[in-house]
Design brief:
This protein is mainly α and about 80 residues long. The chain has a domain of about 35 residues. It is built from three helices and no strands.
Length: about 80
Amino acid sequence: MKHEDISASRRRPVNVSLDTGIVDAARKAGINLSRVTEAALRVAVKKAEEQRWREENRESIARFNAWYAENGDPLAHLPAL
């Protein structure tokens, strides 16, 4: 799966509608709305990508898990690091 680069880069102005109470509270607390929103979006994007990857690979994961349950750990004979 190709992972999109979601590291920090150029900024793009966007319009976002937010609850006025939380915006006021964030401003009073000195919270940078853009940075917090950006961080939350990074988490949400990563979670969505991981979920999509699990769905796309569900059958392969199930086959591996079945093989592992039947055959055990193929590296069990090696000493622990």
